[in-house]
Amino acid sequence: MTMSFEHKPVLLEESIEALAIEPNGLYVDGTFGRGGHSQHIMQQLGESGRLIAFDKDPQAIATAAEKFADEPRFSIHHGSFAELESYLNSQNLCGQVNGILLDLGVSSPQLDDPQRGFSFQQSGPLDMRMNDQQGLSAAQWLSKAKEEEIANVIYEYGEERYSRRIAKAIVIARETEVLSDTRQLAEIIKQAHPRWEKKKHPATRSFQGIRIFINNELGDLDDCLEQSYRCLAKDGHLAVISFHSLEDRKVKRFFKRMADGEQLPPDLPIRDVEVNRKMKLVGKRAKASKNELAENPRARSAVLRVASKL
Q1: Which of 35, 82, 101, 187 could staple 220 via S-S, CB 3.0–4.6 A?
Q2: What is the CATH number of the domain that holds 146?
Q3: Going by DSSP bridges, is the β-strand pair 279-281/303-309 parallel, antiparallel, or unpaired?
Q4: Cα–Cα dist 53/40, whole Å
């Protein structure tokens, strides 16, 4: 029996508005999830409009096949949004996209299903892969990785200041037991962590770091941001929802670099129009409203940034 887990799209109204949808335009949802954003994009498309979605998760692909089985304007590619440019090139659509939406991180169904291994709240297999048909699971990686590598991953991607103590505890534990369960790992981290943050489980940052590493989330984000510019049509919008500082920092710096244009000596006699700016920022960053937070506390860290191609 397949369990159903609810997913509430974050910053739904703000992100759909940010795309400035043209009824007959071409749009990309780089993170289909359970189709919340895609469904609202589809509602604004006309007969000639088209939406292409991407997702690594086989369960997301199955949901898309069910939700949009009879919808000729919709298609989905099973893969990372880092494959955006190559896929659109294969369809002769690169440079023609009117809007791209990226809703980063892990989805609620992935967190809530203990069998996926993303959460320490319930006991489940220590997996953490968005596509559980590819790559190493968290358990497989932790069973072989060197202590220094584990510490670096937890520090760099989880921003965990006690990463070395935690990595050492993991390596010691695996000498006497097979690391295979999420709660098992969470307890090891909990015992090794010397200072717990208020209202935050001591394993939160470590789990985030391992998950990001296992799924190459930041590497895929870098690739997709660069590709997005080339895939967009003139005046096309790129809207990105991020959930932690590592993601948001990358998006902010990318947008700034594209909006600032070429970095030239300040005393060089050149007109502003010759700086070769590639994108412009659209509005200020947006965060979830009080009403949305009341209904969906997981939206509290979400940040939406938008830019359009010049």
Answers
A1: 82
A2: 1.10.150.170
A3: antiparallel
A4: 13
Residue 123 lies in a domain: no
List beta partners, residue 29.
53, 101
Contacts of 112 (CB under 8 A, 6+ apart): 5, 6, 119
pLDDT of residue 13: 93
Instruction: For residues 70 and 205, state if they share a domain.
Output: no
Please tell me the total count of domains within the chain: 2
3-state secondary structure of 123: coil
Between the alpha carbon of residue 6 and those of residues 65, 286, 293, the distances in Å are 17, 24, 16
Domain that holds residue 34: 12-109+217-309
List, in order, residues 6 or more apart from 300 with CB less than 8 Å away.
288, 293
If you ran DSSP here, which 8-state letter would residue 130 be given? S
Distances (CA, A) of 190 to 18, 162, 178, 251: 41, 11, 18, 32
One domain, residues 150 and 210 = yes
> Which residue is listed with tokens 């200072």?
195
Mean pLDDT of each 10-residue bin along the chain, 310 residues long: 58 95 98 94 97 96 94 97 98 98 89 89 94 95 98 97 98 97 97 89 96 97 98 98 96 96 61 74 93 88 96
Sequence letter at residue 202: P
Structure pTM?
A: 0.91
Distance CA 144, CA 236 (A): 45
Contact in structure between 158 and 213 (CB atoms under 8 Å): no
Count of alpha carbons within 13 angstroms of residue 211, beta-carbon side: 23
Task: Identify the pLDDT of residue 52.
Answer: 98
Domain end position, chosen among 192, 214, 236 = 214
Q: Do 224 and 100 belong to one domain?
A: yes
**How far is Cα 20 from Cα 307, in angstroms, rounded to an integer?**
11
